[in-house]
Amino acid sequence: ETFRSNFSDTQKKYLRRYRKYRKERRKNHPKTALSPYMCFVKAKRAEIVQSQNMINPSTTFEDIGRLLGKTWKKLSDLEKQPFIRLAGEDSERYTGELATYKASLRR
Q1: What are the angstrom distances between the C-alpha of 78 and each of 7, 82, 85, 89, 92?
Q2: Distance separating alpha carbons of residues 24 and 29, to the nearest angstrom
Q3: Cα-based distances in Å from 20 to 4, 27, 40, 67, 99
Q4: Is the four-CA dihedral 27, 28, 29, 30 of positive or negative sign?
Q5: pTM, whole model, 2 decimals?
Q6: What's the gap between Cα 69 and its chain centre?
Q7: Which of 43, 33, 28 is closest to 89 using CA atoms?
Q8: pLDDT truncated to tens, each residue of the chain (107 aa)?
Q9: Cα-based distances in Å from 37 to 10, 20, 61
């Protein structure tokens, strides 16, 4: 038995309207800022996938994720600085876009 089967028809109708409203409201919402780790993943993922596919062509998505995590942990603070800087810039971008977005909602 699914979760939705517990609702009456009126409740299901309300939920559909509410979801549509939420979806429309978030349509222009800015993307959230990336963390330093995600900036690292974005920069290094293709490189690691290519090197792993040369070694083992059947490397899975999970294996790539584990390898990226281990590589990130091995980096020194000095080696992480470029990614921390990129994350800071992305955070500033998000803050500015969010302020603009919130101002547009008030109109």
Answers
A1: 55, 8, 11, 18, 22
A2: 10
A3: 17, 11, 35, 39, 24
A4: positive
A5: 0.71
A6: 16
A7: 33
A8: 455 567 788 888 888 888 877 776 677 888 999 999 999 999 999 998 888 888 888 888 899 999 999 999 999 999 999 999 999 999 999 999 999 988 887 76
A9: 45, 33, 17
